[in-house]
Amino acid sequence: MLRRNFIVFTISVAAGMSACGVVGHKKSKKQAGVLVETPVVVDGINHEWHKPLGNYDEKAMLGYAVANDSENLYITVETGDAATQMKILENGLTVWIDKSGGEIQSTAINYPIPATYKGKEMKDGAYTRVHAEQDAGPAEAMQKRLLDLRMNIKQAIAQADEYSLQGFKGCNLQFPVTAQNSCGIEVRINIDEDNELIWEAKIPFRAFYFKNKVDKADMHRQMSVCIETTGSKRPAGQPVARSTRQRSGSGIRPGFSVGGMGMGVQFGGGGAGGGSNAYDPNLTLMEPLYKTTKTWTKVGIAAKN
DSSP for 91-119? Predict the structure, then answer.
């Protein structure tokens, strides 16, 4: 069970540039720290976490939460947006941890390992990606394309079986998710009954922190966590779909704004296809696939008084 403690969470602005574009994020409201009374089981099923998750980055389309007990830091990330899910499965999700509370990117979990680094090609066989933008049809066709995309995501989940570590104490290698590492780090990814992708990790403090266990002397000490996604390359000649109203949900709990159906779009001028204001739900569906995002959060350590 998770118990709230009076420690502050804040969101830092993440700035950067990429061919796909790095999305910057505003500061969030202050939130209480979370103390874990019963250890979280890392299985890609985040039933132990309070719902909805305490933080949501609307631009990255990711919900997330951070908690700890005396020995471990726990992190969970979720998204119900199909294109964002495929982006994570294609290109991996990187979670950076800076124990100093800054934005130093030296300690990270990379999971899953991008398919291209594993010698696999996401565009073929079971990894076929639905490029709706290459076969744009009427809005009525989007539901079928979404179902096809969901099927491909579930097939790709089965291949998300490796992760890598960097910057930790003596366990900076690539591992199968079912294998143990000397740091005691555990990761899992899954799709739940609501078609949300769930990412979970347990990171023992002994693997990266100043000491093996935290106690009340560590309360109010800040560390930082960054959730990074890498956008896929946009096909040549494809315009950018821009929203004209908030997107409705697609397999996500109420209160989250995520990718889905029923969104008006207009195509940005200056690029291929620019100037068109036609409604094309197929472009809208796939747009998050091409966005690179960084979400920084400052995390106060929770401890028993």
Answer: H-EEEEEETTSS----SEEE-SPPGGGGT
Least confident of 36-50, 232-246, 283-297: 232-246
Amino acid in position 39: P
Instruction: Kindly provide the b/e burial profile for residues 252-282, where b requires at least 16 CB atoms within 10 angstroms of the residue's own CB.
Output: beeebbbbbeebebbbeeeeebeeeeeebbb
Residue for token pair 């004209």: 244
Q: Which residue has the higher pLDDT, 15 or 227?
A: 227
| Paired tokens of 231 | 């956008």
- Rounded distance between C-alpha atoms, residue 3 and residue 29, angstroms: 19
Sequence letter at residue 266: Q
Pick among 3.40.1580, 2.60.40, 2.10.260, 1.10.4160: CATH of 2-115+160-233+290-300? 2.60.40
pLDDT recorded at residue 208: 97
The CA distance from 18 to 20, in Å, is 5
Which residue shows structure tokens 């929203």? 243
Q: Provide the whole-model pTM.
A: 0.76
DSSP classification of residue 208: T
Contact 80, 256 (CB under 8 A): yes
CA atoms within 13 A on the CB side of 61: 33
* Amino acid identity, position 11: I
288: Cβ contacts below 8 Å, ≥ 6 apart: 61, 81, 83, 84, 87, 259
Closest CA to 135 of 289, 281, 291, 288: 281
Kindly report, as residue ranges, where domains of CATH 2.60.40 are found in the chain. 2-115+160-233+290-300
SS3 286: helix
